[in-house]
């Protein structure tokens, strides 16, 4: 018999915000992560950001297409949207983040918004 480490009812539900970066330059994943974390910590502090389950999956960021995904829990979607809205620059380049859509699974984020095929 296999023991589950956590009851499924107690697991927090995840949401995936698909965003587009409007800028004149392409940015690396490291630059993007630094800018978003800096803005998040300024707005909400360490304790606030720790409640969001805020994460940027590396395999879901396309620097050429300037699109990517931010993962968070379902209770903090609006707060993460505010982080994206308030991030005005990456490095020294001015940018605007546009949230294209919100999904509940990575597969639907890929098929609806990122035009990536599932390679499973």
What is the secondary structure topology, with strand pairs?
Layout: E1 14-22, H1 29-50, E2 67-73, H2 77-86, E3 89-90, E4 93-94, E5 96-103, H3 106-114
Antiparallel strand pairs: 1-2, 1-5, 3-4
Helix pairs in contact: 1-2
Q: What this model shows, in words?
A:
- With 120 residues, the protein is α+β, with helices and mostly antiparallel strands.
- The chain contains three helices and five strands; from the N terminus they run E-H-E-H-E-E-E-H.
- The protein has helices at 29-50, 77-86, 106-114; strands at 14-22, 67-73, 89-90, 93-94, 96-103.
- A hairpin with a 2-residue loop joins strand 3 (89-90) and strand 4.
Shape: globular
Order of helices and strands: EHEHEEEH
β-strand percent reads 15-25%
Low-confidence stretches: none
The secondary structure category is: alpha+beta
For the sheet with most strands, the description reads:
3 strands, antiparallel
- Global Rg: 15 Å
Look at the structure and give the CATH class: Alpha Beta
Give the spatial strand order of the biggest sheet. 2-1-5
Q: Provide the residue-averaged pLDDT.
A: 89
Could you estimate the helical fraction of the residues in percent?
A: 25-40%
CATH level-four homologous superfamily name: Ribonuclease P, Pop5 subunit
* Topology, number of strands: 5
CATH fold group: Alpha-Beta Plaits
